[in-house]
Specification:
Shape of chain C: globular
Helix content of chain C: over 70%
CATH topology of chain C: ABC transporter involved in vitamin B12 uptake, BtuC
Order of helices and strands of chain C: HHHHHHHHHHHHHHHH
Radius of gyration of chain A: 20 Å
Largest interface: A-C, 53 and 55 residues
Shape of chain A: globular
Structural class of chain C: mainly alpha
Oligomer: heterotrimer
Distance between the termini of chain C: 53 Å
Structural class of chain A: mainly alpha
Number of strands of chain A: 2
Chains: A mainly alpha (316), B alpha/beta (535), C mainly alpha (377)
CATH architecture of chain A: Orthogonal Bundle
Strand order of the largest sheet of chain A: 1-2
Distance between the termini of chain A: 59 Å
Number of strands of chain C: 0
Number of domains of chain A: 1
Amino acid sequence: MIALPVASIFTQAFLTSLVAGGLLAGVPLMFTALGEQISEASGVLNIGLEGMMLTGAYTGFVGAYYGGHDWLGYLAAIGGGMAVSLIMVVFCVRLLLDQIVVGIAITLGAEGATSVLQGAQFGQSYPRLPAASDVSIPLLDRIPILGESLFQQPLVVYLGFALIAFTAWLLRRTRPGLNLRAAGQKPQALDAAGVSVVGTRSLAVLATGALAGLGGGYLAIAGAGIFVPFMTQGQGYIAIVICMLARGRPVWVLIGAFIFGMSLQLATALQIAGIDISTDVINMIPFVAVILSLILFARGDYLPPALAQPYVRGAR
Amino acid sequence: MTSDRPHGIDSTAGADAPAVELIGITKAFPGVVANDDIHLAIRAGEVHCLLGENGAGKSTLMSVLSGMTQPDAGSIRVGGNDVRIDSPRSALALGVGMVYQHSTLVPALSVLENLLLGEGTGLRLDTESGEARLAEIAATLAVHVDPGARTGDLSLGEQQQVEIIKALWRGSNVLILDEPTSMLTPEGVAELQKVLVRLKEAGQAVVFITHKLHEATSIGDRVTILKQGRVAGALGENDLRSRTADDLQAEIVRIMFGEEAVGSAPVAELEGALPERRQAVRASGDVLLELAGVSASGDGISAGIEEVSLVLHQGEILGVAGVDGNGQRELAEVVAGQRRATVGDVLLFGMPIGKLDVRSRQKLGLRYVTDDRLGEGIVGSLGVGLNLVLKRIGQRPFWKHGRIQRGQIERQARELVAEFDVRTPSVATRAGTLSGGNIQKVLLARELSSDPKVVVFNKPTYGLDIRTTLAVRTRIQELAADGIAALVISTDLEELLGLCDRIAVLYQGRLVGTFENGPGAAERIGELMVGSRAA
Amino acid sequence: MSDVAAAIEDAPENVRATTPLTGFVDLVIRSVLPLLLALVAGGILIATLGHNPFEFYRDIYRGGIELSAWQDSLMRASTLTPIALGLIVVFRANIWNLGYQGQFLLSAAMVAGLGPHLERHLSATLTLIVLFFVAGVTGAVWTLIPAILKAWYQTNEIITTLMMTFIGISLAAILVKGPFQDFSSNVPQTLPLNLDQLLPTIPGTRTHVGVVIAAVLVLIVHYATTRTSFGLKLQVLGANPRAAVHVGLDPKRVILTAFLCSGALVGVAAAIEILGILGYVRADYNPAYGDAVIPFVFLARLNALAVVPFILFYSVLSIGGDFAAQNSGLPVDFLLVIVGLTLLFMVFIEYLGRQREIGRSYITPGLRAGLRFRKAR
């Protein structure tokens, strides 16, 4: 299969494609995983993340297509993601029902719904959006390989970087962040301190829906430019894994998203390098990477003790 | 709380109006009336002890006062005014601070973060004023606390101090302490008493909930006794000051258990519900169980055990004393087979059993009554009958060729339920619905049936009512009289002193001494429990 | 005693004592109602999309039962049932095997790929037996990695099984495009199996004997889960993993066995589908049967007998749904929406039921407790 010696694949073109493309592919993962981090910090596990992302992709695409502007699309994506996460808020946070079952329901329902809506709206055609406009940071974007990757991206990507920094600050140094962490570590303590556990978790889940929706929206608007049913292809679950490996630190979400983004991007990069490996093999790589990471790194008890436990006042 | 409101610990409440009054409080749960028309008046500058055995309704009453539960009937007055306390937030706003029996601190957060939890309204955490306030309150209580320390790393006594500081943070007038000494060393108890004195001086009204008689009489300025949800009696300031300790205790026993109880057994023993003290058994019988230099690692915070050696003779009751968290669980699990020994040997009847799993050890007669009744002892969703055979899944006569024999299981269940006095509607009832005492009886029935030879008990009477406690302790004595060896691990030193022939002390995973039970043992054991070296 | 307390003590017990009959009716209502509600909600959605819901559902009936369509539904049920059984086995033990799709596709590829070759060398019956065996083993093997990771390292199996599904989809495609490919056709697919080498039909009908196989499996799984010591071990592990250790069960063994059985059952389902109906597999084959089965497994409270009527119902829905979708122009993915709605209504009704303390909940406490990541040393 690989006839060329390994060294020669590391050409400029290959690396640029891998790194720049990897970042592009990693952005949806970054947004979504960051959102999941906020949820998990507060003790809610979102198996329905895939559904939120997919819904955001669809509403985002529709928003950009009919609104004529990318930003309308992103707003619609946020709205779509939040609407789906609202189901999570009502059923799991407020009614204390099982988070995993509801998560599965949300994902299946969203997959079906977006497919049906897409068919109803566009029939058999798959219209395209014009390519997203990039914002370049002068000078920095001339750095070989990294320059194009990091400093010549649509505006929303820089928003993503800013959100990472903001979330890190929020969790460690603010009152809402403290409440969030307490809700995930020991909700009884938060309740005894007079803060609503349900309210804290509700906000967290809505924030996750917004971010996951944004991630999906980016995938459809800036990434692919079209919406295809089931287009997220498991990225929501990859985002959950990134979140698990990030151990509560937003900066690791950034790094993890980038690495997994590169694995998603590998097929295209290899094509550019002139290496021909069947797409099926390439498609497997991100998921194999996930399993390897879990084997190697997902140890110890980082996860918040109250994860996936509904909180009932007075229960022992 | 606004800054111009005087901080509670500096103000003195009006001399006549009680700081808090509970009037006619009634609260019922399915099947039990936890509080029945209770009246209680709590005054500033006093420690008011609420005394009652487990299940008497003390915790329910306090959860009403702290806003965790709503009463079915009755009213509450704070500072003379009728109020509604419908959530912990309202309780805090009204000046009621609560220190729960089970910690409400978040172990992973720092002390300061725990104190700031729920405080303030800004976006940023106000660490500067937080540290200042902490210093202020700590000075009043004459304690030292490091704001940056990780709360989970502090000792239980220090954590309790943080909880008290948190309860006082918003300037409360009333401080409720729920069984505060249950996890403390004797040293920690002394520290707590000093803090209580300072609190009284500062004008706080303190409610001290306990089930220990001697604590109530020595610490309290006033004592109210609860029995089965009702106020059974009270001792006022004059009583406590003027009468002798024995007299007071007799009076309390009379209130709690009726006239017959007084004088029928030494009062101290009755309070602890200890059976007639048996003659110490000389350690002369065969050695049934031996641990030779056994070490095992713990999980997370717990340190495990290191190089523990002990012997247990036939018919002997050997106690293991120690403050909770010094390796008790690991010791029990190594003997039972749930945990591997990394070093050393466990020998049963002289044979090493390190390689045998739980079920094989069971079959040989080695049994384990766990302290974690709901967490690992029973499967709540299964019936009582199934729970009784849970350690024998697949074995005859309850299973034949893998197929379940329900008739056999039911028959045995009925016998055991009768023998061990388990109160349950039927043997098919889900075990999780039984009361704590009955669950313990189910566990005992399971472990003590079918020819036990060596039984390990971990905290066998923790959280049980007096009747069941007495039944359990009596049974342990009966076992020993039959020649069965018992290893009783307990954090209740009085229980061990009343029950055991010899007592070993576990401290930070090591067995630091073994004593014959007798006069003077208590002091030496107490010292070793907290780590001071015995001469 | 005060008046209030006396009144409370005299009041009838909140924890209700129902007669066996009312308990049964409760059960039926709680199991069937979510489905009905989902159908109604689905109907409303169809209406908002501009189609006639009554026609849609009538088409489903026509396409699913009328004439001889009921036989197709029965055959679809014979494929879905072993998948449901596989899920029941693991869910009882608090194990979320969500990798059924990968297990199914790989087993299908193996059966479709090896079948034509085996046919030439072995008798018809022997071929079938060997292929069933191969399918079961493939499905079981595909659960090994998640099973080992969970048993030894407590690695979360939701993620690992899902990852294995995505890998499995690609691997199946590689197999079909590679060693198993039928190069005489334009589209990548496997060689077709000889018609008379497929599963025989029941005399007098065109239904294949897969139905019988499925029925037998139902009885076996039901017996195993409710009457054997293995079944109890599953229950104990599912209800309280710590108690499982305490009473001396080996969680690793139970986890492995449960996973392997589950994978094997899913593999058998794939064999039934390929050997009974399709006869070959295309490279992009992905019917996603398992997704739809999940809510019914829960509605049946993880009981192998009780799940059968639900599967039959859904089979009619999906066979008829193909027909109805063609007629109306709605994509068949719409059924996924109904599945999602069924799950949501199910948990909501559980909530209502819990509020009134009606009966037991759908989900074992272990499944409800979610994930445990702590690595016990």
